[in-house]
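Backbone-to-sequence.
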């Protein structure tokens, strides 16, 4: 067993690596070489990455890809995507191409309200707490003016603070449920600073409130933190076309295609096992854009899945209908994204990604990201109800198999050609590569 190390974060990068290799890799030099292969020769760039997080010993690459041909509200976009799953970018591009000839995507941001809460315990008369809150609410808000001043200049700020009585769910539990506008920032630091300030003010004002007994004055702040559940920070995206413009094949007429598509979405609405995979496919597109643009994909994931459960059971984030022979497909998703602050001005590839999108504001980025999710879902359902998912997936996965088998460039070229007309399976790739090598 490895002995406990203290003061690890203060060691130099080399010493951290030496420690790890000594304790976990039998001092294997090859391990050090692997880590160093990923170091950037540009020292300043490497230092920038080292300083993003603690105990950084190397860089972890993900493919940075682009999906062209997205027509969104009449404007053309090439969407940056950071993702390792081989078929995702191809699927997005295919969906973009399909819909660009059918009017493209229409998007809208419904609202951009962010939420944070001060959770506290109050053992006393609820009516007195309500009166106290009425008396001090404006004081609490105005006392944070020094924190909200800059955000207000940018069009954001503190929107409201509500006292919420949660004692029916947990003894003595109350909240300050606070709403914020954070303009083009994701706003986590702004919100958390405001909340911690509100909590302090709440304690001070309660202590000095003459209407409270000694016990009531002693309300206990449990924690102050933003919520990643943002059901009022919503982007929508949709596509529509006459049913007759949908794929029409020997196996499925356009009408049959539309009806099958709708059934597939309906299943994801009512069946959580399917809904999770359906939404996972949506998040393939969403996360890839969120990562490429330097946003927090864990926050987006958590918020999206909570939203998908808002009606009491986990359900689809997309919807499909046929009305008057017009097929429509749409997504509604919470996306608390930022285009300023965080990594957006630090990470060179994030800057480039935002530039590629025309340096959008947060609202526009929410719209573009929602489109990426809808496109991904369209591509997945399209495959699922026609050829099945494996045909495309295995084609895209072929390169991974070839790399596992250490195929040379010439072997790759020949086998990619061969598998254009033959089904890809791992064993068949092995057979074919062995044939070439004989
Ligand atoms: C794979 O990453 C995503 C899919 O499974 C999504 C879906 O089933 O809708 C293809």
């Amino acid at each position: 067993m490895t002995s406990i190390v203290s003061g690890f974060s203060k060691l130099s990068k080399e010493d951290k690596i030496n420690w790890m290799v000594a304790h976990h890799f039998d001092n294997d030099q090859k391990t050090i070489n692997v880590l160093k292969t990923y170091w950037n020769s540009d020292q300043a760039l490497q230092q920038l990455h080292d300083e993003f997080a603690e105990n950084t010993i190397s860089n972890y690459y993900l493919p940075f890809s682009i999906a062209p041909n997205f027509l969104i509200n009449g404007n053309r976009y090439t969407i940056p995507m950071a993702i390792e799953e081989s078929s995702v970018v191809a699927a997005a591009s295919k969906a973009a191409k399909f819909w660009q000839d059918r009017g493209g995507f229409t998007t809208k941001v419904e609202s951009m309200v962010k939420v944070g809460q001060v959770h506290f315990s109050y053992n006393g008369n609820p009516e007195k707490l309500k009166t106290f809150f009425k008396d001090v609410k404006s004081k609490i808000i105005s006392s944070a003016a020094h924190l909200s001043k800059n955000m207000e200049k940018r069009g954001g700020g503190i929107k409201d603070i509500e006292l919420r009585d949660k004692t029916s769910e947990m003894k003595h539990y109350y909240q300050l449920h606070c709403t914020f506008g954070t303009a083009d920032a994701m706003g986590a630091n702004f919100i958390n600073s405001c909340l911690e300030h509100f909590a302090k003010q709440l304690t001070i004002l309660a202590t000095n409130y003459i209407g409270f007994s000694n016990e009531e004055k002693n309300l206990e702040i449990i924690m102050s933190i933003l919520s990643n559940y943002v059901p009022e920070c919503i982007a929508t995206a949709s596509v529509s076309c006459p049913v007759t413009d949908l794929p029409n094949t020997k196996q499925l007429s356009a009408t049959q295609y539309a009806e099958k598509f709708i059934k597939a979405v309906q299943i994801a609405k009512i069946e959580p096992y399917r809904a999770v995979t359906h939404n996972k496919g949506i998040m393939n597109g969403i996360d890839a854009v969120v990562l490429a643009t330097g946003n927090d994909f864990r926050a987006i994931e958590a918020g999206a899945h909570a939203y998908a459960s808002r009606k009491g059971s986990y359900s689809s984030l997309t919807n499909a209908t046929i009305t008057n022979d017009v097929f429509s497909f749409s997504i509604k998703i919470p996306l608390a994204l930022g285009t300023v602050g965080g990594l957006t001005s630090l990470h060179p590839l994030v800057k480039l990604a935002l530039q590629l999108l025309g340096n959008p504001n947060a609202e526009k980025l929410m719209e573009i990201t929602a489109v990426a999710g809808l496109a991904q879902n369209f591509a997945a359902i399209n495959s699922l109800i026609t050829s099945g998912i494996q045909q495309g997936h295995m084609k895209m996965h072929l390169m991974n198999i070839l790399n596992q088998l250490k195929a040379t460039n010439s072997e790759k070229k020949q086998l990619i050609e061969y598998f254009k007309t033959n089904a890809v399976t791992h064993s068949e790739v092995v057979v074919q590569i062995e044939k070439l090598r004989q």
